[in-house]
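Materials and Methods. Structural model of 7,8-dihydroneopterin aldolase. The 120-residue sequence of 7,8-dihydroneopterin aldolase from Vagococcus penaei was retrieved and submitted for structure prediction as follows.
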Amino acid sequence: MGKVRINNMLVYTYNGVLGEEKVLGQKLELDIELTLPMSEAGKNDDLTKTISYADVYTDVKTYLESQSFDLIEAVTYHVLDLLGEKYGEQLTHALVRVRKYHVPIPGFFDNVEVEMERDY
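The predicted structure was written out as tokens:
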């Protein structure tokens, strides 16, 4: 087994509970970790034996730019659904983290993060 990771992926979305968040939008940051067999891809230098991280990036970005959710929990859940639908035959496991930086609550912190994982 091996892992493909996309770290700190930025997507501009219109997610959030507050109306302003859905109108003005904001950046979300994602980490995506995919676990899958990689021996054949590595041994034979064959992209068809692995998952293209370029395709994953494009699929997730396109999906999130066309959707609107209230919660980053929902964003995380539906990204895992998308990964399963598109790559489930190759995947054994996926982990997704979604970070939101501009959270409309008082206090001092860098971000809020939700993490979910799923076996396929």
